[in-house]
Design goal:
The chain is an all-alpha fold. The protein is built from three helices and no strands. Helix 2 (38-63) packs antiparallel against helix 3 (69-89).
Length: 93
C-alpha cells in the first residue's frame, strides 16, 4: 500500500524535476561538471545496461552449463532487436 502511495510522490517529484531540468539546461544556466544531460542518461539506459545484461546472461548460461557459448551468443543476439523496440515503445516495462 505504501509503495502505491509513494509512486504518486515519485510522479510529482519527476514533474517538478523535469521543469527544473528545462530551466537549468534550456535557459543555459551554468551547472557543475557532475550534472548529466538527459541524452547521456538515455544512452546509458538504452545501450550500456542492455549490452552488459546480454553479455552477463550469455556468460551465465555458459558457466552453469545450460548452453554452449556460441548458441547462447546467437540466441541473445536474435533477441536484441525485439528488446530494443519494446523498450523504446514503453521504457518503463
Amino acid at each position: 500500500m505504501m509503495a502505491y502511495m509513494f509512486s504518486y510522490y515519485g510522479l510529482a517529484a519527476a514533474a517538478m524535476l523535469s521543469i527544473l531540468n528545462y530551466c537549468l539546461l534550456g535557459l543555459s544556466f551554468e551547472v557543475d561538471g557532475y550534472y548529466l544531460k538527459s541524452f547521456e542518461i538515455w544512452l546509458a539506459c538504452m545501450v550500456v545496461f542492455p549490452g552488459a545484461g546480454n553479455v552477463a546472461f550469455t556468460l551465465l548460461e555458459y558457466r552453469i552449463g545450460h548452453r554452449h557459448l556460441l548458441s547462447a551468443v546467437i540466441e541473445n543476439i536474435t533477441w536484441i532487436p525485439f528488446l530494443y523496440v519494446s523498450k523504446s515503445i514503453n521504457p518503463f516495462s
